[in-house]
Amino acid sequence: xxxxxxRPQGISQVLSTTGKTASHLETQAKDFGKHLQSAASSAGTIxxxxxxxxxxxxxxxxxxxxxKTQGGLVALALSEYAEHAxxxxxxxxxxxxxxxxxxxxxEARATTGVKQAEELAGAFAARIATLVGGTAWPREAARSxxxxxxxxxxxxxxxxxxxxxVDVLTDRVAVVIQDRPVVAMTAWLADAFRAVAEAxxxxxxxxxxxxxxxxxxxxNLPGWPSRWVVQDEKGGYYDGLSGAVLHWDNGMxxxxxxxxxxxxxxxxxxxxxxxxxxxxxDDGERQLAVSFRAIHPAxxxxxxGGALEAVWRELTGEPPxxxxxxxxxxxxxxxxxxxxxxxxxAPRPTWLVAVxxxxxxxxxxVRISRTEGGVEEDVTLAFGYGPGEEMPTDTEVIRAAExxxxxxxxQSMLVQVRRARRDLSVPPRFxxxxxxxxxxxxADEVREMPGDRARRTPLPQPPRELGPKRRPALYYPFPGxxxxxxxxxxxxxxxxxxxxx
Length: 501
Prior knowledge:
- By secondary structure, this protein is an alpha+beta fold.
- Helices cover about 30% and strands about 20% of the residues.
- It has a 10-stranded antiparallel sheet, with helices on both faces. A 7-stranded mixed sheet has the order 1-2-4-6-7-8-9, with helices on one face.
- Helix 1 runs antiparallel to helix 3 and helix 7 runs antiparallel to helix 9.
- The protein is globular.
- The protein starts with 10 loop residues before the first helix and ends with a helix.
């Protein structure tokens, strides 16, 4: 359906807050009814029929005979209003309360090639919501339960890679057209990623100019010929991550040919779209990006997710808010449940996403796989900060690294700082790369290095030891200035040194 905007962060937090507020509303509704009944009992006795009045006593058919609240017309009106208003408020509270966990998201998506498809998807969503007592969103999309005329429409057999999310399938790529503010890693899109990988095809996601990607989609987009295709406001297309002008060529979107004779497929040197140009002003928004790998001994008592939670707590003061195997992440954070899912899927790998609260946007993707060395967790994590918001201090980053190194089997860790959006979404324009803030080498990796290679490096600052002196991890600091890319030169020198090159 067009127009969906399922934000990758904050859904669990919003539901929880709404549920708590709704419970208070229900209590207040009961008190409201009692107070209004009391007011009715104390109201003046202006009666219908005898014209008596006053400020007390019984009037009309109140009291024991009539079964209504004591008083006259004012009391009767207040009483009836209280009876209906209290029920309405309690109904609002019941509908707004957090649904019982787990609650399920079902997405109905219309193909762009059939005129009646959107009406069919809307009718399907409306009927499902009616049958199970759910809610369809956006509401205008599921406005009718009427039967949609489908004369002349029929389904045709499709190849295995033609998942519901795929709009165009060629022998080179699968094309997914997404017309929504944010493209998230929904269950259908995740199925498309898996299907094209198995079919050895590329995946090309086509969006309007105002659309952004969630970090989960950006981080999982494969290499060539996969790409994010943005429809330019001038009517053309360009790559949302590189800015190269694109056109449809031989069954896929490809860069426009460059007149440069040295252009290659890896470096096409295609013309750049004007819409991709970076903004000149620094808006003060920043991201702290953390990527690390932990390898745990295979043990039936192993609980996964602890490394991610430890870093999250050290850098934000709280654990992740929720997790899931697709976006939006609608399950409350639970390392035990996460471990159960990974265990059931083994030996196949498990991919999942974790999110933070609206107060501190955070999103992590985790890939869990069984290897010869044990159980491997590859984590990519980012937090967003707005103008005036303090990023974690050096001390907090060092403490997070030490917790990983001493308690969670850290192999390596890279911390970066970059100028990018606080909400973590990826816009279709140039954003500067991150710069290295710190690199951490796990204790086992340090011990395997010959001699003092890990300690004696070409960097101006020596590494800092983390953990016990007999078996330390090493923390290598970098300037971390997003305006200065020279930190990557030092980082490459360090990597070459550690590899013995």
